Amino acid sequence: MATNTYLPISTLNVNRLNAPIKRHRAADWIKRQEPTICSPQETHLRAKDIYIEREWKKIFHAHVKDRKAGVAILISDKIDFKTKAIKKDKEGHYLMIRSIQEENITIINIYAPNIGAPKYIQQILTDIKRETDGNTITVGEF
């Protein structure tokens, strides 16, 4: 059986999803793109605020209580995605998931702070280097 190497991914800075209209517009845009994986940044949501997730098989979040930053990784039901590990920071600036989908795959979503972004990203990648391999997808705003 041939392996499909095409994996549509959408990544976008949603610049806060606190307002219902904005959440619905973002959800509609994402749905039209038909991604297998979607990685929004700057969600500014708490876990109980996530409404965009209804059409996703698996949803992973890194968020904080005071609605700052926030990243997510949404996985559609188009792939058989079995989670092996999840790593995230307390400030909601990055999220890493490792899984098996025919092979090991790592997805990292980073929302770097405005000040010191290069150093911040370098530190994240250094910290998680042992947990990544050749099948790593890094997305985000940096």
UniProtKB/TrEMBL annotation:
Keywords: Hydrolase, Magnesium, Manganese, Metal-binding. One of its GO terms (molecular function) is hydrolase activity. Gene3D superfamilies: Endonuclease/exonuclease/phosphatase. One of its GO terms (biological process) is DNA repair. Mg(2+) binds at residues 13, 42. InterPro entries: AP_endonuc_1, Endo/exonu/phosph_ase_sf. The keyword Manganese applies. Probably binds two magnesium or manganese ions per subunit. Transmembrane segments: none annotated. Its cofactor is Mg(2+); Mn(2+). This is Uncharacterized protein. The lineage of its organism: Eukaryota, Metazoa, Chordata, Craniata, Vertebrata.
